[in-house]
Amino acid sequence: MTLNKEGYSECGINVKMGCSKIAVHTAIRNFEEYGCYADKKRTGRPRKTSRDDNIMTLTVSRSPTSSCKKVQVTPIMKKKRLEFARIHQAWTVADWNKVLFSDESTFQQFTYRHQHVRRPIEKRFEQRYTIPTMKHPPSILGTFN
To answer: What would the 3-class secondary structure string for the chain be?
Structure first.
């Protein structure tokens, strides 16, 4: 409003402020009519949901129907992993250097259709919202060293 009071035109204000002519015009008109820059009260149907529902809407819009695929780790697998970790806990770098690591590529013979799941936010890896996958589906395994 200072620039308007100093005698700048709407076009001059928009160039100086770096905004559109209509934005300057609307701001000046609102200030003259209402004495402030605040928007008028919106018309239309009142809101029936809370603002927290925006989180749900955002989550669904990012991934509306896709599920999270996660290899299911059974209690037996967890026990074996913990046992392995305890056995090798004291290994040195020299011990690990004796181990041959290799990359494996899996070529699946069968493809699976996508299943769609709706889930709440922060519940991605909960058991009931995941689709169990097989660790080793029927496939051809190629090893590359």
So the answer is: CHHHHCCCCHHHHHHHHCCCHHHHHHHHHHHHHHCCCCCCCCCCCCCCCCCCHHHHHHHHHHCCCECEEEECCCHHHHHHHHHHHHHCCCCCHHHHHCCCCCEEEEEECCCCCCCECCCCCCCCCCHHHEEEECCCCCEEEEEEC
